[in-house]
Amino acid sequence: KAGVTQTPRYLIKTRGQQVTLSCSPISGHRSVSWYQQTPGQGLQFLFEYFSETQRNKGNFPGRFSGRQFSNSRSEMNVSTLELGDSALYLCASSLSIGELFFGEGSRLTVL
Amino acid sequence: GQQLNQSPQSMFIQEGEDVSMNCTSSSIFNTWLWYKQDPGEGPVLLIALYKAGELTSNGRLTAQFGITRKDSFLNISASIPSDVGIYFCAGPRSNDYKLSFGAGTTVTVRA
Q1: Beta-carbon neighbour count of residue A13 at 10 Å?
Q2: Between A42, A98, A104, which is nearest B48 by CB?
Q3: Which of A52, A62, A83, A90 has its CA 20 to 30 A from that of B76?
Q4: Do residues A56 and B96 touch, judged by C-beta distance below 8 A?
Q5: Bridge partners, residue A74, by sequence
Q6: How large a percentage of chain B has pLDDT more than 70?
Q7: Do B20 and B75 form a contact (C-beta atoms < 8 A)?
Q8: Record: contact B99-A56, CB cut-off 8 A
Q9: What is the mean pLDDT, run by run of 10 residues, along chain A of 111 residues?
């Protein structure tokens, strides 16, 4: 069974640009969550989608947005990038509450 | 939100030693999860605990769900070099898929 796939794995952007990250969940998993991981803040919840609807949202500014498609694939977008947005962005899919299966992440560097 | 306090923050251990780390919370959890993250990878679920007092093993790993439902510990027996990584405790809020994560315990094994 294929795991959670995230693309791209690495990317470099400059301040003010925007970025879109993609996530393909494990087949059959309808819940997709996004987390930001930084050395200083650890793993911070961004949002969770289920059946194309955002069910939960973390405490991030409106520059961070996401969506889920009918095939459960999800994208997240960060607009007007800031230096502090440099992080590992992790996507996770789930079949039941709590047991998240993570992808390898997309490492974003903002210059 | 719910905060998980994980300790120790880091540890250096000799190969063959047993390792113990724990996680506490001021709130009750119905599920405790332990994840391991290798460098450059996403977290991988090691053990899931669903019942207070439950003791569960996965190879050399043993985890327990505290009786008070406010704590959990993870033991690694006879550590080997591939045990290097960051171990996270996590728990879902009562009725949704959002996970709260501890800050992580970084384990380094000396050969």
Answers
A1: 16
A2: A98
A3: A90
A4: yes
A5: A23, A68
A6: 93
A7: yes
A8: no
A9: 90 97 95 92 91 92 97 97 97 85 96 96
**Quick one: pLDDT at residue B1?**
46
Structure tokens at B21: 């780390």
Chain B residue at shortest CA distance from A34: B98
Are the Cβ atoms of A42 and B96 closer than 8 angstroms? no
- In this predicted structure, the answer to whether residue B13 has a pLDDT above a threshold of 50 is yes
Tell me which chain A residues have a C-beta less than 8 angstroms from the C-beta of B91: 98
First to last CA, chain B: 40
* Residue B94 pLDDT grade (very low, low, confident, very high; cuts 50, 70, 90): low
Say yes or no: B41 contacts chain A, CB-CB below 8 A: yes
Nearest residue on chain A to B103, alpha-carbon basis? A42
> Closest by alpha carbon to A104, among A10, A32, A1?
A10
Q: Which residues of B touch A42 (CB under 8 A)?
A: 101-104
Q: How far apart are CA B33 and CA B12, in angstroms?
A: 23
User: How much is the mean pLDDT over chain B?
Assistant: 91
